[in-house]
Every structure is written in C-alpha cells, then in structure tokens.
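Hey,
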Amino acid sequence: MKNLDHYLKKAIGNIEEDRKITRELLDDVVQYLSKNEENHRSVGLTAAKYVETLQRSNAQLVTVATMIQKEQDKAADGLSDDDKADIFDMLQAGDEEDE
C-alpha cells in the first residue's frame, strides 16, 4: 500500500503540473486568437490539442480516484471471502486433529 500511495501521489502531482502548464499555454492561445480572426487558422488545431490534453488529464484523475477508492474499500471490508474460508478451513483442520 505504501508504494501504491507513493505512486498515486506522484501521478496526481504530475497530472496537476501538466494541467497547470497546459492551462497557461491555452490561455496564451486564447489571447492570440482574440487579436485577429485569421489567427484561428494558424493555431486552432493547437488550441484543440490543449483542450484534448486537459480532457485526458480529467480521465487520468478519475482513474486514480477509482484506484484510491478500490484500495479504501478493500481496507474497509476487512477479511475477504477467501480469507474467511481459509480461516474456517484451518479451524476445521484443528478440530479434526483434536478428536
């Protein structure tokens, strides 16, 4: 869990940094576009790529959040069904030895 936490924090940090840089670049493009209608031809595709990058980072954040939720759910559930079955089998084996 410690390694997972480390990598999840690192991934979130990277995603946030990428979003910050992309947002700054997109802001620059928007300013450039607002100066002249012809500028849309030269940087329109670039602006679309920046927006696409932000959308992908949203998907990455959802994936990371899902992983965190699964880990928290697993920890909160306590023993899994397999763990319970193993303990039951061990207890039964111990009872048989006592007889």
